[in-house]
Design goal:
It contains 8 helices and no strands. Helix 2 runs antiparallel to helix 3, helix 2 runs antiparallel to helix 6 and helix 3 packs antiparallel against helix 4. It is found in: Membrane.
């Protein structure tokens, strides 16, 4: 009878420790991360087609194209493993590379507006719409990942599940951060004056 009571006490204690919740949220965060990677890969696959269609424009700014190509190469060269989720430095490096690609593509799209023949090109317009849709998918996938990691991190820091986290070495997971927070917090400068000639 004493063994039965000890066994029952152990089962009750373990059921309230959050171990299964850690497993569930860890798997959910991995699945959410896989979707983020899937969308980033979709975007990376679009870049060569966008660059090829822009290269057809005779006087297009070569520096802008070069930056997009270099940013894509950097973003796709970073090896991402499941351990990346638990390594804040590797996660930040990956996030920075993806941010650079986002910035380079934004500049490319802004510069492309100066070229009417490029804007009239149906293939380029289709690629632009596909890119915009992919950027939206990236945002949704990142938001799902952020929510899952938030739930995991709250579990890892809350009592009594934080004890389970310490026993089984469940560290808080890194999440996406705004890289240019200081710039974003400043209001944009709007200048309606006519451009100088």
């Amino acid at each position: 009878m004493k063994r039965f009571l000890i066994l029952m006490f152990t089962v009750v204690a373990l059921s309230g420790c959050g171990y299964n919740d850690f497993q569930r949220l860890d798997e959910q965060s991995k699945a959410a991360w896989s979707e983020v990677l899937n969308q980033y890969q979709r975007r990376a696959d679009l870049v060569p087609n966008i660059v090829a269609s822009v290269k057809g424009e005779a006087n297009f700014e070569q520096d802008t194209l070069t930056k997009v190509i270099e940013a894509r190469a950097k973003a796709t060269s970073i090896q991402v493993t499941p351990e990346t989720l638990n390594n804040p430095e590797a996660f930040a490096k990956f996030q920075q590379a993806q941010g650079e690609l986002s910035g380079a593509l934004s500049r490319l799209m802004a510069v492309s507006e100066r070229y009417p023949t490029l804007q009239a090109n149906q293939a380029f317009r289709d690629l632009r719409v596909t890119l915009e849709g992919t950027e939206n998918r990236i945002t949704i996938a990142r938001n799902r990942y952020i929510q899952t990691v938030q739930q995991y991190n709250v579990l890892a820091r809350s009592f009594p599940t934080n004890l389970t986290a310490k026993v089984f070495s469940y560290e808080a997971k890194p999440t996406f951060a705004v890289q240019n927070e200081a710039q974003i917090s400043q209001p944009p400068v709007v200048d309606f004056s006519a451009p100088k000639k």
